[in-house]
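Translate sequence into structure tokens.
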Amino acid sequence: MAEEALHLPDGTPVWVRDLRPDDAPALIEGLERLSPESNYRRFLSLRTGFTERELAYLTGCDGVRHIGIGMQVEEDGRRRAIAVARCI
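Result follows.
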């Protein structure tokens, strides 16, 4: 999927595209931004990081059997990941 610009119901512009290996830093940043409660609900334990192997798996989608899509929003002149969806 090529990057696509969309708008949320409130008019906020967002960008949606397939996950790529160079998205690993965004996944790390996203984990750091989660509240402890959100972190626990997502992983069923408190997770403080990802291994290199986990990051390779999470960002190495083949687009057929492993699909990963990310959404970004612009903040302070740079894009920040706000959502990830995957289907395996």
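Note: The chain has a mean pLDDT of 94.
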